[in-house]
Specification:
Strand content: 25-35%
Number of strands: 5
Radius of gyration: 13 Å
Number of helices: 1
Structural class: mainly beta
Strand order of the largest sheet: 3-4-5
Helix content: under 10%
Shape: globular
Distance between the termini: 11 Å
Order of helices and strands: HEEEEE
Number of domains: 1
Length: about 100
């Protein structure tokens, strides 16, 4: 994921406006041109969650054989947060060229 120093890291990454994001889409200006979309998450059970309000992305950091660190971007926050999810869940992937 693109790293920005300082405040509004999530806003730099989010698609601006409310066409795809739930209101208020705080801080979204897409300055990075990364254009995060709120695709939510699909659990292994088939249940979709947070479509329109959250963008979840896999990282390469594994906790153990079943869990991987993710990055999350919310409609009501300017930050990027992290958490652990099961590898069997479905999250977004973004390939970045160095």
């Amino acid at each position: 994921m693109i790293e920005h120093r300082g405040k509004n890291q999530g806003g730099f990454l989010k698609e601006a406006g409310l066409l795809y994001w739930k209101s208020p889409n705080l801080g979204a200006d897409n300055r990075s041109a990364f254009s995060v979309m709120p695709a939510g998450i699909r659990y292994a059970t088939g249940l979709f969650h947070c479509l329109g309000s959250h963008g979840y992305f896999w990282t390469t950091t594994e906790y153990d054989a079943k869990n991987v660190m993710t990055r999350r971007i919310y409609y009501d926050s300017k930050d990027v947060s992290r958490s652990w999810y099961f590898k069997e869940d479905s999250l977004s992937i973004r390939c970045i060229k160095n």
